[in-house]
Specification:
This protein is of the alpha/beta class. It has a seven-stranded mixed β-sheet, sandwiched between helices. Helix 5 runs parallel beside helix 8 and helix 7 runs parallel beside helix 8. The relative contact order is 0.16.
Length: 243
């Protein structure tokens, strides 16, 4: 399994986040790819300070800040695992959830598992929670889905499925893009509840309201896009593409 960790200016959390990732016991081999997306604080130095204790840690550097989607694409190009999961460098979600999210893939061959922050829990009334509710509802309407957390940081995808997708978005619009393309291909997204500790902008949260506007455009764009912009083989939805 490959844990991809895009990092931008996370000096205060990167060490604790890496420790949490490496403390998790998994039923399969794991590599951790940290992509330093042009950080301008002490993030790179903090990564160097902890990497000697983690032989499975791979560190890649982006020459300048290019966005979450770009960092994920860079990490995916170096990944060797059969399963890919994106792990944010902050401490909002707990990598201890990885083992539980893996179960549907290992036991039943599920193509995609999302960790939902809202499944079985009352939704908060924060601006971010409301925006996510709107975007998730729009996703369900446009793509005929029934998910609860489109913007979740935990998207665990089989590597063969991940590699089929033509991923173009470079920033936070990666989140609606990958969900839209998975659903256009007919893949069923399994959701499992996860714990969540939100942080404020003062604590380093980077997503802005403008990203929500972009997400709406992305959802409409890929609902109408031809399949050569969705998957590399151009195959449409159906049983062969939705195991």
């Amino acid at each position: 399994m490959t844990s991809g960790v895009p990092v931008y200016n996370e000096e205060s959390t990167i060490a604790a986040g890496r420790a949490r990732v490496h403390a998790v016991c998994l039923p399969l081999a794991r590599e951790v790819i940290v992509v330093n997306d042009g950080s301008t604080d002490g993030t790179r130095a903090r990564i160097d300070a902890v990497r000697s204790g983690y032989p499975e840690l791979i560190v890649l550097d982006m020459p300048r800040n290019s966005g979450k989607g770009a960092a994920i694409a860079r990490g995916a190009s170096a990944a060797t695992g059969d399963i890919v999961v994106i792990q944010d460098a902050d401490l909002e979600v707990d990598p201890a959830e990885h083992a539980r999210l893996l179960a549907p893939i290992l036991d039943d061959g599920a193509p995609v598992v999302y960790g939902s922050r809202f499944l079985g829990r009352p939704r908060g009334l924060s601006v971010n929670a409301f925006a996510n509710l709107v975007l998730t509802t729009l996703t369900n309407i446009l793509y005929g889905a029934r998910i609860t957390d489109m913007e979740t940081a935990y998207k665990m995808v089989r590597r063969d499925v991940f590699d089929r997708l033509v991923l173009e978005c470079r920033r936070f619009d990666f989140e609606p893009e990958i969900t839209a393309k998975l659903l256009r291909c007919g893949y069923r997204i399994i959701e499992l509840p996860i714990s969540y500790t939100p942080r404020s902008r003062q604590e380093g949260k980077k997503i802005k309201w403008q990203d929500g506007v972009v997400a709406v455009r992305v959802l409409f764009r890929y609902r109408l896009a031809p399949f050569d912009r969705i998957v590399r083989d151009g195959a449409g939805p159906g049983p062969a593409s939705a195991p």
